[in-house]
Amino acid sequence: MNQWQNFTKGFIRQNPVLVLLLGFCPTIGVSTSVVNGLGMGLAATFVLVMSNIVISIVKDFIPDQVRIPSYIVVIAAFVTMVELLMAGFAPALHAQLGIFLPLIVVNCIILGRAEAFASKNTVFSSIIDGLGMGLGFTLTLAVVGMIREGLGNGSLLGFKLFPGDGALVFILAPGGFLVIGYLIAVVNMIIKRQEK
Amino acid sequence: MEYILIIISAVFVNNIVLTRFLGICPFLGVSTRFSTACGMGGGVIFVMTLATLVTYLVNVYVLAPLGIGFMQTVTYILVIAALVQMVEIIMKKVSPPLYQALGVYLPLITTNCTILGVAILVIQNKFNLMESIVFAIANALGFTLALIIFAGIREQLEFSDIPEALRGAPIALITAGLLSLAFMGFAGIVK
C-alpha cells in the first residue's frame, strides 16, 4: 500500500465512523452544526496524529502487557493539552463541545489506531494514517452536521437557507441516530456497487 | 425528595445513552442478545458506582487541595483502568460464579465512555458525596434499562425482512433513534 492510499483510506473505504463503526458518541453528540462538527473533528485529529507519533516512537520500549494503559496515558496527556488550548483560544467552542472534549480519551478511534496501526508501523506512515483517519472523521462529522443543521434549523454555517425553523427533531437526540443510520446505509450501498 | 428527582432525571428524562449520547458503542455492540445485555448492565452498575465514589474522593482529597484540577482527565482514566483491573482480579478470587457472569464485560467497561463521563459530570454538577453515588447508580440503571429494551427489540428484528443496505448497524441506529424519540416523551417531567 503506498502512502497516498494510506492517507485516503479513512475517507470512505475505511471511514472510522461509517465503516469501522467506531466513535459514535462524539459523532452523534456534537454534530448538531457544521462548526461544532469541524471543531470536534480537528481536535480529535490533532490528538490522533500526536499520539500516533509518540506511540510509533516508543512502541519498541513498552512491554506488551502494559501497552494499553501506556497508550491511554499518552492519549490523555494530549487530550488535556487540547482542552487547555481550546479553553484559552476558543472558549465558545470549548463550551459547546462540553463533556465530549475530555471524552476524546475514550474515543475508540484513537486507541484503535494506536493498537492497530501505530504500534506496528514507522513514524512517517503513522502520521499519514493519523491524518487520513482524523480527516475522515472530521469529514463525517461535518457531513452529519450539515444534514442536521440544514434540516433542523434551516441554516448552513449560521446562514439561513429557507425561512422558518425546520424540523427541530434533527437537532435533538433522535435526529442524530437517524441521520447516521441512513448515512451508513448509503455508504454500504456505494461500497457494494464498487465491488461489483 | 432530591434523590428521587436525581434518579428519575437520570433514568428517564436525561437517559445517558438516548439523550446524552454516551456509551453508544457498547449499546450497539452487546445488545444483540437479552442475556448479554443483562450481563453488561450488571457490570456497568457495579463499576460505575465504585468508579464514581473513588474518583470523587480523589478529586476532593488529592486534586483540589493540590490545585492540579487540569490533571483530571489523566488521573480519572488511570483510576478507572486500575479499578476495573482490580475488580476483575478480586472477583475472580472471591466469587467465581459472578466472574463467570460479568468477567468478559469488565475489560470492555474501561473504554466505556459512560464511566468517565459520569465521573466528570458529577464534578461539573457540583454534587456532594451522597448525591454523586445516587447519580452514578441512577445513570447505570438508565444505561441498563436502555440496553435491555434495545436488546429485546433487536431479538425481534432478527425475524424481519430488512433491505440489504440497511442490515446490521444502520437498522440498529434507526431503531435507537426511534427509541430515543420515545424517551423524549419524558422531557419536561423534571427540570
Summarize the structure in short.
The complex is a heterodimer of chains A (196) and B (191). Chain A has 196 residues and is mainly alpha-helical.
Averaged pLDDT of chain A: 85
Main sheet characteristics of chain B:
none
Main sheet makeup of chain A: 2 strands, antiparallel
**Separation of the first and last Cα atoms of chain B:** 14 Å
Strand runs of chain B, count: 0
What structural class is derived from the secondary structure elements of chain A? mainly alpha
Helical residue percent of chain A?
Answer: 55-70%
Order of helices and strands of chain A: HHHHHHHEEH
Low-confidence stretches of chain B: none
Extract low-pLDDT stretches of chain A. none
What shape does the CA trace of chain A take?
Answer: globular
What would you say this structure looks like, in words?
Chain A is 68% helix and 2% strand. Chain A has 196 residues and is mainly α. Chain A has one domain. With 191 residues, chain B is mostly helical. The radius of gyration of chain B is 18 Å and the shape is globular. The chains are: A mainly alpha (196), B mainly alpha (191). Chains A and B meet through helix 2, helix 4 and helix 8 of A and helix 2, helix 4, helix 7 and helix 9 of B.
SSE layout:
The complex is a heterodimer of chains A (196) and B (191).
Chain A: H1 3-8, H2 24-30, H3 34-58, H4 67-89, H5 91-97, H6 108-118, H7 123-153, E1 155-156, E2 159-160, H8 173-195
Chain B: H1 2-13, H2 24-29, H3 34-66, H4 72-94, H5 96-102, H6 106-110, H7 113-124, H8 129-157, H9 169-183
Helix pairs in contact in B: 1-8, 3-4, 3-7, 3-8, 4-5, 4-7, 7-8
